[in-house]
C-alpha cells in the first residue's frame, strides 16, 4: 500500500514538472524588490513637481527605470539558470516557452499603453498601469509555474487599483508593489521551495 501511494506521488510530481516551470528563484524576487525600492528612492530625490518629456528630470527617471528593469531581469535569469541546473530542469522547454509567452503578452501591452500615456502627458496613470498590467502578467503566467505567482499578481492588481483611486501617490504605491511585494513574495518562495532543494 505504501509503495502504491509513493508511486502515485511520484507520478504526480512528474506530471507537475512537465506542465509547470518550477525553477523560479525566491532570491530573484527579493533582489527585484530591493532594486525597485532603491529606484523609487532615487526617483523621489530627482523628480520635480512638474517636468516635461524633454526635461533632464524625465531622462533621469527613464535611466533609473531602465536600470531597475535590467538589474531585475538579469538577476532573475542568472538565479533561475542556477536553480534549474541544480534541480536538473531544462531552462528552455515547451513549458517555459508557454510561461514566457503568457507573461509577455499582458506585460508588453501594458508597456505600450504606458508609453502612450507618457506621450499624451498622463503621468499620474503610469504607476497604476504598470502595477495592474504586471499583475495581469503574473496571473496569466501562473498556470505554467508555481501557484504563488497568481497571488503576487492579484496583490499587484489590487495595489494598482488603489494607486488609481489615490492619484498623486503613484511612486509610493509603485514602491509598495514592485518593492515590498516582491521582497515578501521572494522571501516566502525562498523558504517554501528553494531551501528544500
UniProtKB/TrEMBL annotation:
Transmembrane segments: 21-43, 58-79, 99-118, 124-142, 149-167, 173-191
UniProt keyword list: Membrane, Transmembrane, Transmembrane helix
Superkingdom as given in the UniProt entry: Bacteria
Identification of the protein by name: Uncharacterized protein
Taxonomic classification: Bacteria, Pseudomonadati, Bacteroidota, Flavobacteriia, Flavobacteriales
Amino acid at each position: 500500500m505504501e509503495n502504491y501511494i509513493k508511486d502515485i506521488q511520484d507520478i504526480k510530481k512528474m506530471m507537475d514538472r512537465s506542465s509547470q516551470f518550477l525553477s523560479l528563484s525566491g532570491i530573484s524576487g527579493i533582489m527585484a524588490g530591493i532594486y525597485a525600492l532603491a529606484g523609487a528612492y532615487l526617483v523621489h530625490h530627482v523628480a520635480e513637481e512638474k517636468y516635461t518629456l524633454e526635461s533632464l528630470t524625465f531622462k533621469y527617471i527613464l535611466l533609473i527605470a531602465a536600470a531597475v528593469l535590467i538589474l531585475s531581469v538579469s538577476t532573475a535569469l542568472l538565479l533561475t539558470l542556477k536553480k534549474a541546473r541544480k534541480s536538473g530542469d531544462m531552462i528552455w522547454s515547451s513549458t517555459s516557452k508557454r510561461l514566457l509567452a503568457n507573461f509577455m503578452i499582458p506585460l508588453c501591452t501594458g508597456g505600450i499603453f504606458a508609453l502612450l500615456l507618457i506621450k499624451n502627458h498622463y503621468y499620474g496613470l503610469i504607476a497604476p498601469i504598470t502595477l495592474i498590467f504586471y499583475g495581469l502578467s503574473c496571473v496569466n503566467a501562473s498556470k505554467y509555474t508555481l501557484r504563488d505567482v497568481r497571488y503576487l499578481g492579484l496583490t499587484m492588481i489590487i495595489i494598482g487599483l488603489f494607486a488609481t483611486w489615490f492619484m498623486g501617490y503613484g511612486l509610493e504605491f509603485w514602491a509598495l508593489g514592485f518593492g515590498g511585494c516582491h521582497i515578501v513574495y521572494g522571501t516566502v518562495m525562498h523558504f517554501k521551495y528553494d531551501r528544500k532543494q
